[in-house]
Amino acid sequence: MSSAAENGDAAPGKQNEEKTYKKTASSAIKGAIQLGIGYTVGNLTSKPERDVLMQDFYVVESVFLPSEGSNLTPAHHYPDFRFKTYAPLAFRYFRELFGIKPDDYLYSICSEPLIELSNPGASGSLFFVTSDDEFIIKTVQHKEAEFLQKLLPGYYMNLNQNPRTLLPKFYGLYCMQSGGINIRIVVMNNVLPRVMRMHFTYDLKGSTYKRRASRKEREKSNPTFKDLDFLQDMHEGLYFDTETYNALMKTLQRDCRVLESFKIMDYSLLLGVHVLDHSLKEEEPSQNVPDARRPGVQKVLYSTAMESIQGPGKPGDGLVTENPDTMGGIPAKSHKGEKLLLFMGIIDILQSYRLMKKLEHSWKALVYDGDTVSVHRPSFYADRFLKFMNSRVFKKIQALGSRHRPDLVPSTPSLFEAASLATTISSSSLYVGEHCPHDRTTLYSNSKGLPSSSTFTVEEGTIYLTAEPNTLEMQDDNTSVLDVYL
Which domain of life is it from (predicted)? Predict the structure, then answer.
């Protein structure tokens, strides 16, 4: 399941080459989506509020919309079709949980034409985004829709316990029937807002088997790269402050345990990287910014990356509310010190480890290293996914001295040569209790061994240490931390 492919481009302006899905023009699909959702959500407002019952997850409502119209439905210029709504009361509860009012939901989906996105994957699905950038609508296969139906009770329970999650937010499941063809669609949150340019986009699974973007993908204006591309482009990883890193890893661990319990595998972390330093040097294309968003537009709870890991009221949330230009991105830094905003979400969660997936893994394991292929049993997949994220992708910036003894941090770079603000020193030159050439400065190490190379950076009066830890050392957060006493 993908949430915005994820920052894909709007479909190229070849108006005469309209895309088709199951022999149905995309314009007819978009029209049916807006007519069907407009009717079903409007009809739902007449039903009283009540608790969600178990049988609500299995209800399917259906309405026929002829092109000439009826007493209940408007006329339209598309072929006659039937529109089915799955678990309408349950999904109404999900939308309420995320703070989406019925009027806002209808306004976002039905007021303006849906925008078609180019598909970055190989699934063949169509992706649409609402004009206000709030929702992604994706066509799904029969097995995926069926699996989501079975997932709903557990999904409901998990959202009640952990509303702060990077899992997809499902807002509706529908089916359009016309001419003997069933087209199933799901409405989700938009992970990568189009108003924020993504300088890099990655689809990460934690596997290495054929995990490199194809030549065709690389030729796109906004390609989606994969694991091997990330290891090549950003081999040092992405750095967070301690609090943000801990919140992110806790959320990922909890989400992976939930997916494992549902026997789900083959999911990805969709990661969008916006380089703030680049955006200052270049003019952002104005056509990417939605025009005339209505005043008081809804703020979907937990839909931004920052809210998904910390939630409202947390320290990091001030960045989201006080500076709307961040669009809820998570602040981070590259190994070069570039300031970044990260947007992310777990996608493609509607793949269960069924018989066909087990057979696929078995034959691939005969030819390749079984541990490197993406298809794997859910428990192994979750462990490998988490290990890749906390050792290769996301890392922690260690602040030295400033947190507990800010009054002792020197105002001038007397600790290092004045000509350099960043100095790489070898761990072999650091000894416990041994004084440096500077008279009043002593470096102590709280571990017996340090990484072979540790980079100290002086920035705004604070000394930072960034290190490339060993995978084995990741179990101990303190292996690469130094305390500075002056």
Answer: Eukaryota
**Is-contact 237 230, C-beta < 8 A?**
no
What does the pLDDT average to over 225-238? 93
Tell whether the model's pLDDT for residue 122 goes beyond 80: no
Report the alpha-carbon distance of residue 326 to residue 338 in Å, rounded: 15
**Mean pLDDT in residue range 306-322:** 56
Alpha-carbon distance 445 to 161, whole Å?
A: 41
| Token pair of 394 as six digits | 């996301």
Which residues in 141-220 belong to E strands, given as ranges? 170-178, 181-189, 200-204
CA-to-CA distance for 230 and 212, rounded, in angstroms?
Answer: 9
**205 CB-contact burial (10 Å; exposed 0-12 / middle 13-18 / buried 19+):** buried
Answer for the pair 147, 350: CB distance below 8 angstroms, yes or no. yes
Going by C-alpha positions, the residue among 432, 407, 410 that lies closest to residue 421 is 410
Round to whole Å and give the CA distance between 218 and 204: 16
Say how far apart CA 298 and CA 59 lie, in whole Å. 28
Considering only CA atoms, which of 420, 430, 460, 396 is closest in space to residue 236? 396
**pLDDT reported for residue 282:** 56
Query: Please, which pLDDT band fits residue 7 given cuts at 50, 70 and 90?
Result: very low
Distance between CA atoms of 271 and 347, rounded to whole angstroms? 10
pTM of the predicted model over 0.85? no
Q: Are strands 238-240 and 394-396 parallel, antiparallel or unpaired?
A: parallel
Give the DSSP letter string of 131-186.
TTS-EEEEEE-HHHHHHHHHHHHHHHHHHHH--S-SS--EEEEEEEEETTEEEEEE
